[in-house]
Structure formats: structure tokens, C-alpha cells
Specification:
alpha+beta, tt1808, chain A, two-stranded antiparallel sheet, 10 strands, globular
Length: 138
């Protein structure tokens, strides 16, 4: 349910962007021996293959007991090294979304606005405000 809500909020916000789209879990080939499948991906160019072989603009991982350690450590490091601008960690136990933004090659945690929204800048012409607080509403 949370993934669907997050996809919906990003989808609505990105309607004005010509190139950026939300994708469901899709294989992201980092290297020949490293393939990840983020829960949500935002791409600002169309993949030319059945998998993604370039850094997405945003990835989101929804924590579960079996994936939390990997999402917070291994994937965090890989996404940072790959230059993915935004990494969202969604914790359904605390109803929180950690927003990591790549600045000078390092992720820095960034807080949502006071109203629970966040301003994402994917491309020059694609700046969107996403009401992340809506994700938790039923």
C-alpha cells in the first residue's frame, strides 16, 4: 500500500515533466555481477534495454525486517557510488521517509518541508514538490 501511494504521489507530481517517469521495481544492472531491484525508481531518460544500465535520478527502498540492513548499508553505498541524486528509505514501522540527497559525492540527509512535502529537482525543467505526508493517509 505504501509503495502504491508513493508511486501515485510521484506520478502526479511528475506529470508536468517531459522526461522523468516513475517505474515499478525494475532490474538495475550496476555491474555484470551486481543487479539490484529498487522498490521505486525515477528515470529521466528511457531505458534502451529490459533493465536499467545507468544511474536513476531517484531510488526508494521500503524497509522490511529481511532487507533493512542491506538497504541501509550495502545499497546506500552502491547508490551513493553510482551518483544517484536521491535515495529514499521508507520505514513503515515509524511512518517516516528519510531523504538522502547527493551533494559533493556524498549523501546528506535532508528533511521534508514543515508541511511534509519535499522539493525534488531532477532536471533543469523538472522541479516538483511531492507531498510525502500523503503517503501515510488511508
Amino acid at each position: 500500500m505504501i509503495a502504491a501511494s508513493l508511486i501515485t504521489e510521484f506520478g502526479i507530481a511528475l506529470k508536468k515533466c517531459r522526461h522523468c517517469k516513475v517505474y515499478l521495481p525494475t532490474d538495475y544492472k550496476v555491474q555484470e555481477d551486481t543487479i539490484l531491484q529498487p522498490d521505486i525508481i525515477i528515470l529521466c531518460k528511457t531505458p534502451g534495454t529490459k533493465f536499467i544500465d545507468f544511474a536513476p535520478s531517484l531510488v526508494a527502498e521500503i524497509l522490511s525486517p529481511s532487507t533493512a540492513l542491506r538497504d541501509r548499508n550495502t545499497k546506500y553505498e552502491i547508490y551513493q557510488q553510482q551518483g544517484i541524486k536521491y535515495y529514499l528509505i521508507v520505514d513503515i514501522n515509524t511512518n517516516s521517509i528519510e531523504i538522502y540527497e547527493l551533494k559533493n559525492g556524498q549523501y546528506q540527509i535532508t528533511l521534508a518541508n514543515a508541511d511534509g512535502s519535499f522539493d525534488f529537482s531532477f532536471e533543469e525543467e523538472c522541479r516538483v514538490n511531492v507531498p510525502l505526508n500523503e503517503v501515510w493517509k488511508e
